[in-house]
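lol forgot to send this yesterday, sorry. struct tokens for the thing we talked abt
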């Protein structure tokens, strides 16, 4: 289920009530766990050593483990009590350029919709769009405090939740000081230029998901799943040879595309 929140954006003394709607939906194919002999679904019952055999949602509470097997119970109402009005609102603290934010910090994205004060909402949207800036804020969404980035995309306001600095782990990869061969670098750059173009996300399909759905459909029709045809790849051990052959293949590919476009024109 797509997550949504009701909150407000504060910009100086301007206050705009908004609703947030998750940008991303879950398209994952889910499988249930079945008992191999009967094909019946395995059920996972909530239980404990001294619990009744059946538990309802009303029997459950939240507990924080402060020592081994020792918990302090805290309710949603108690968590709500400790929120201030400041926590509940998205108060913009500063504006920055988008390219000054490392993408590694971005988490979830939400469409922002005004729930009143439309003139003020449109004013903020137009201002950040014209200035090409991102508003940085902090707020509690649900039960989690989030760093927030607000930006304009295609004349629409989009909000990103962000990871805190201490959530990002250090990179285990070590920097190498090996010198790069100038000729190899030139070839690598030529390949990059040959492969460059405008990015269109619609070109990239979830092909494996489609294969899984086809396999499920085949099983439902009583057919065997056909194994995928594996494409043989040439093993070129020498880096220079691999770069040269790659560059040549992209050049010939571009020539063929030009010839096709001339014929179709």
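and heres what i got for the seq, position by position
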């Amino acid at each position: 289920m797509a997550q949504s929140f009701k909150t407000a954006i504060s910009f100086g003394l301007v206050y705009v009530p908004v609703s947030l709607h998750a940008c991303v939906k879950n398209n994952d194919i889910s499988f249930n766990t079945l008992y191999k002999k009967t094909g019946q679904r395995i059920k996972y019952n909530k239980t404990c050593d001294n619990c009744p055999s059946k538990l309802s949602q009303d029997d459950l509470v939240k507990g924080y483990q402060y020592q081994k097997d020792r918990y302090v119970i805290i309710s949603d109402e108690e968590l709500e009590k400790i929120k201030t009005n400041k926590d509940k609102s998205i108060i913009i603290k500063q504006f920055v350029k988008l390219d000054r934010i490392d993408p590694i910090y971005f988490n979830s994205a939400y469409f922002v919709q005004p729930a009143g004060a439309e003139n003020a909402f449109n004013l903020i949207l137009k201002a950040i769009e014209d200035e090409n800036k991102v508003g940085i804020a902090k707020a509690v969404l649900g039960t989690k405090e989030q760093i927030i980035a607000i930006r304009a995309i295609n004349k629409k306001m989009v909000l990103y939740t962000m990871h805190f600095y201490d959530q990002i782990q250090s990179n285990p990869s070590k920097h190498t000081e090996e010198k790069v061969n100038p000729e190899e670098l030139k070839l690598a750059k030529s390949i990059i230029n040959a492969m460059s173009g405008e990015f269109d996300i619609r070109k990239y399909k979830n092909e494996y998901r489609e294969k899984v759905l086809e396999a499920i459909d085949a099983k439902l029709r009583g057919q065997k799943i056909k194994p995928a045809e594996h494409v043989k790849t040439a093993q070129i051990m020498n880096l220079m040879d691999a770069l040269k052959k790659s560059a040549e293949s992209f050049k010939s590919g571009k020539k063929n595309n030009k010839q096709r476009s001339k014929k179709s024109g």
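Residues 182-196+205-257 form one domain. anyway ping me if u want another try
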